[in-house]
Design goal:
Number of domains: 2
Strand content: 5-15%
Number of helices: 5
Distance between the termini: 16 Å
Order of helices and strands: EHEHEHHHE
Number of strands: 4
Radius of gyration: 17 Å
CATH topology of the largest domain: Maf protein
CATH class of the largest domain: Alpha Beta
Oligomer: single chain
Shape: elongated
CATH architecture of the largest domain: Alpha-Beta Complex
């Protein structure tokens, strides 16, 4: 049986909650909906708590965040989860990318940790400019959720 919260259906509402507290992510995702006649609100706008990301995959964490925002707000919600998965580090930091950034979510701290971990494996960064571009990419899971009607 399908989860009624995650049921496939046509979006007909006038408001969509983006399950994030990240202003940059909100701008990026909000821009995707700029041509549509819907109000876009962030979880932060609504004062929603950030759920602990306890799943074992990007997709799992996206579902968790979307479900939590939909249940708390009573409105449809969209969430994503992303991070950097480095093959030479067996996929790390992966879903733990934010934790590598420390409590202040310092992106440069996370990248320093990745570089240090790579150095411990004997791996080298053969194209520093490519590494800078890779700092901005990663795997992403994105899921919608809404309360069942």
């Amino acid at each position: 049986m399908k989860d009624p919260i995650m049921a496939d259906r046509q979006f007909t509402e006038d408001t969509l909650v983006i399950a994030t507290h990240n202003a940059g992510k909100m701008r990026e995702i909000g821009a995707l909906f700029a041509g549509f006649d819907i109000d876009i609100l962030s979880a932060a706008d609504l004062g929603l708590a950030e759920p602990d990301e306890t799943e074992t995959s990007f997709t799992g964490n996206a579902i968790l965040k979307a479900r939590e925002a939909a249940m708390a707000s009573g409105k449809p919600a969209l969430a994503d989860d992303s991070g950097l998965a480095v093959t030479a580090l067996d996929g790390a930091p992966g879903i733990y990318s934010a934790r590598w950034a420390g409590p202040d979510r310092d992106f440069n701290l996370a990248m320093d940790a990745v570089e240090a971990a790579l150095a411990k494996t004997g791996s080298t960064i053969i194209a520093p400019n490519l590494f800078v571009r890779l700092r901005l990419s990663g795997q992403m899971g994105m899921r919608f959720a809404s309360k069942a009607k």
